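Before relying on records like the one below, remember that each one covers exactly one chain. Contacts with other chains, cofactors or solvent are not represented anywhere in the record.
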Amino acid sequence: MSEINATTFSSHAARAKGAMFFAVFGAAWLTLWNQRGMHSNWLVYLVIAVLALALAGLAVQRHQQYKAHAEEDSPAAQRAGRLFHFINAAQWIIILVVGNVLTNMGLADWVIPFAMLVVGLHFLPLAKLFNTPGHFWFGLVMSLFAITYPFVFSQGAADPYGCLGAGLMLWGYALLKLMGIPAMQNMSVV
């Protein structure tokens, strides 16, 4: 029997919670890719839905398994939660405001790469906030992708494969997070 402490349970629960969000937002980017690049192919929607449900379902299962044995939220964890919500709200406000400005300037094609850039950049402070170095590297890669794909892909900023890239990166990161969480079998709390 393997023994792990409540702090490890909390860490695993948090990783699984993050993977849930990455699965959902990855599916959203892939849906946007399907709409723009595959002309709303129903079979592609079905594949996205099945894979998203499988990935999110595994994340929910792991979260529930570990959350039951996790530590109560400390004042530091509560503060981190408030800062997370502030960073997340700022991200959405920036995307909405600048997205509207770009659209009104006749640069609507640039809304997607800009949103992708902001999503990537929002991971940078989260890396420090949650002491998760992977967030920094993921945010950096996503930001660099958002900056470069409009100049590399054939349709520029409007190229739907930018959305495909963002969705696959988010799903890949969700899988990476889940791979670090063992199934809870024969474990006891120390």
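Strands lie at 2-4, 187-189.
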